[in-house]
Design goal:
The protein is mostly helical. It has helices spanning 6-14, 37-60, 74-109, 125-130, and strands at 16-22, 29-36. The model has no long low-confidence stretch (mean pLDDT 85).
């Protein structure tokens, strides 16, 4: 089994190839390119990075960003925060009102636990009769 060394892999990447574009009718060479696998890889990678960069820049620096789901405008974010604050306040008010109504219902039905006075008053009958 033949071992693949780094030198042979690097040689294969650097081998030069010729790409010829010919006119089909006259067999005349229109364009000739001298390429290697490494140069094709670098060119394709550079093209990919540039296209991704241009696409991101187009979305970030133009009004197209408002069409991205979840982005929204600054005004809508402010309105959303205000609505959330109001909703939280209303939920707290409803909770407090429900507790109040439950307390009144327990008192009216007589199921509320009553607190008994734990202090003992020593009132002498003599003091009452003197008045």
């Amino acid at each position: 089994m033949a071992k693949i060394t780094d030198n042979s892999s690097l040689k294969r990447l650097r081998n030069r190839y010729r790409l010829v574009v010919m006119n089909d009718d006259t067999y005349e060479e229109v364009v000739t390119f001298k390429l290697s696998r490494l140069s094709v890889y670098v060119a394709m990678s550079t093209t990919f990075v540039l296209l991704v960069g241009l696409t991101v820049a187009l979305i970030v620096f133009t009004p197209l960003k408002y069409y991205v789901p979840g982005y929204g405008s600054r005004q809508s974010k402010t309105e959303l925060q205000l609505l959330k604050y109001r909703t939280d306040s209303l939920e707290l008010a409803i909770k407090n009102k429900d507790q109040y109504l439950d307390g009144i219902k327990k008192v009216l039905t007589g199921t509320a636990p009553t607190q008994k006075d734990t202090t003992v008053l020593d009132i002498k009958k003599e003091e009452i009769s003197k008045d």
